[in-house]
Amino acid sequence: MKNIFLLLVLTLCIASGFAQNEVRFSGFILDANDNQPVEFVNINLLRQDSTYLGSAITDSLGHFSISFQGDLNNNYMLNFSHLTYEKKSILSTPTDNIRVQLNPSGYNLSEVQVKGIRTKAINRLNMEYLVSENLKKQCDLTSEILEKIPTLFVDCNSNVYVKGNSNVLLLKDGVKISHKSMLDLIPSGSVQKVIVSYHIPSKYANENYSAAINIITKRTDGLTLLISPMASVDNSWYDTKVNLNLEKGKNSVMFGYRMHYRDLIAHTTNTRFDLSEATKTFAEIKSNPYSWKDNELFAGYTYNPSSKVQFGAEGYLSLFRENTKKEYELDHRKYNGYHERFNTQNYKAFVSYKDSVRQALVEVSYNNENIKDEDEYFLSQIQTFQNTLKDSYRFNAEYNTKIASKAELNSGFKYEHVSNRGSYVNSEKLFSGGYHGNTYSLYAECNYIANNHITINGGLNMYSYQRKFDEGQEVKNFNIFPKFMLSYAWNIHHNITFAYSSHIKEPTLWSLLPFVKEETPGIYSKGTPDLKPVRTDKISCEYSFSKGNLYVSLTPYYKRIKNKIVSMEENYLDGSLVYNDNLKKYQEWGTELSFSDNLFSWWIVNANVCGYRQYISENSYYNKCLNTIDWQLVSYWSLAKKWAITLQYIHNGKQLSYNGYIKPSNTNLAQLTYKVNKRMKLYLIYVYPFGKMDDERYICSDKKTITTYQKIDVQKVLLSFTYNFNKGKKSIKKDIYINVDKKYD
User: Fold this and answer.
1) CA-CA-CA-CA torsion for 199, 205, 206, 209, nearest 10 degrees?
2) What does the alpha-carbon distance between residue 723 and residue 229 come to, in Å, rounded to a whole number?
């Protein structure tokens, strides 16, 4: 027994003697002649016996970082190599403040084609981020990778925000992702680079996006399975996510399933004030249950016969069901019951070609939306039925080419045909209607890099819109949407961009439905089928500063919106009818500030603040001007290797509308994460730890004011986990420059 005890003690001593800590080399590589940062330097870290430990590539700021298991007191060898600089080696102990100067070798970089990616770089108009292997290990989901990037934010409903705006275009290898819920179908381990563009290409001028995110991936043979369920403690909230990806040779298969379930309680208060009679009417309605469930299915297949050609097909299906029962708050009398079925189908096929000079893409797609809802009003014993069917057929062809070493041309054509049929039945009679529509879009855009400081971008989108109704009424619209940007960069860290852009937004299906529906006692609503598309013109001047992990931008802007869709009020039966109409002109002046930095190695902050002044000259019964501040904060604390805390908060200010305003709800979330092992993470989530989910709408006329206030009981504690299984070839980082003298494979 004594011998066994001594053996255990000896074993522990030996183990502790060989125990190693995680240490790091980091620093900057500079040009020996002008002391400027050198990008794309290949750094290899070796032991003194030439054992390979790790490698890195410098970013646009000349910065690099390598972490490994080792001893703080030992010397290690660092080899530096670059195509246009002489090789250099140094012997050093681990440190975070290395500054190495390299002497030019005499090679001219303009004579050599270099392909590479940057850790963090500004190419004048876009921000590019290389996703490190270490970051991939930390993030099980692609959405978690996006959360680590400056100015980006992902909420608990998978909405992606860029500088506080959620109208974000998501692309995978340059191809549009059909639905935001498919973001996490991209395996996090396949993500190589994320490109964030704050200026939308001309081809998307008719889709109302505020920013674009292009996720660049690398195919590797293998199987990836991700399972992520989520449930609230009180059983009122369930989410489930299952993703399956299979890469084998030239073939790729993706499958995804998502389920969302909510069983909540909502409180709505409507206040109508008659100015002529000085009377006030209240209606307090409780929705219990306010429940809905959505099942989403996605399947995709791609075939790559060569490195240049890709064929693909994908399909998306959503089955949405909503059930609500409303009663009066005070005496609990039943008001109405609401049942809705909303089915959505998207199918797309595409073929693409890409080489070092040209890129071409052809897409065809079909979209189907089918709405069936039923309302039962208990007191009046009235039932209403509504059915709407919308079919869309789309075609897109685009061609991109490099005109010269400094210029690139993007051009294309898009066409869409829409057929919409609707019917509405109440106890008295049947209403029906429909329309057919066609849209055409022809666009071209050129990007020119004048020199190391100046980049010029210009584009044009010609857009034709036509909608014809069964009754013979016709809506036509033709617009030209120009775009221009001039960017100037100096001293590596500073960049200023002047931009003018314009885009269009078509009316939603709901805003076009012409059927009258009683929302709450005395308040009726209906859509307007002849609404015009909304046009937005924006001028901005952005200054940005980037150094290391710090990113700051300041953007004053002016925005003008023509035909903005707003709510208006008129007398109807025993109450008021709220309907949609186009506003002639809306104007907005503002300044936006974005900030992102690693305040400490364990604390990351992303913040965005926008203050602006809104103006509507047509307002007669409410303020013509309104000052508003929107802000957003994401704070991430890495407390230890396995523990992390995330806090997210979005504040939405009042939005000026026609003779009134809209105050959207604020949103906030706190999340505690524990990493069990390389495959599993546990989450404790607190939804709305601060405040409550409530929104308010106010509208007035010469004789009446209507205030609608809604609060939803959504303060919940959620438990979740993610299980990520990978089998197959691991992602291998390939260095841009190869050290021919290395002694390892």
Assistant:
1) 0
2) 9
286: nearest Cα among 710, 720, 722, 741: 710
**Residue 639 amino acid letter:** L
Whether the CB-CB separation of 515 and 386 falls below 8 Å is answered with: yes
Per-residue pLDDT of 497-513, as tens digits, reads 999 988 888 887 778 77
Which of the 8 DSSP states describes residue 332? -
Query: Cα 305–310–315 angle (5° rounding)?
Result: 125
Q: Which has the closest alpha carbon to 570: 526, 617, 521? A: 526
CA–chain centroid gap for 273, Å, is 41
Query: pTM for the full model?
Result: 0.76
Of the candidates 608, 598, 614, 615, which has an alpha carbon nearest to the alpha carbon of residue 630? Answer: 608
Ramachandran area for residue 703 (φ above 0: left; ψ -120 to 50: alpha; else beta): alpha
Separation CA 47–CA 78 (nearest Å): 9
pLDDT per position as a tens digit, 248-299:
888 999 898 999 999 999 999 988 888 777 777 778 888 888 899 999 999 9
Query: Residue written as tokens 């890409």?
Result: 354
Q: CA 623, CA 617: separation in Å to the nearest integer?
A: 9
- Do 217 and 207 meet the contact criterion of CB atoms below 8 Å apart? no
Structure letter (DSSP) for residue 181:
G
Q: What six digits make up the tokens of 566?
A: 């707003």
Q: How many CB atoms lie within 10 A of CB 125?
A: 18
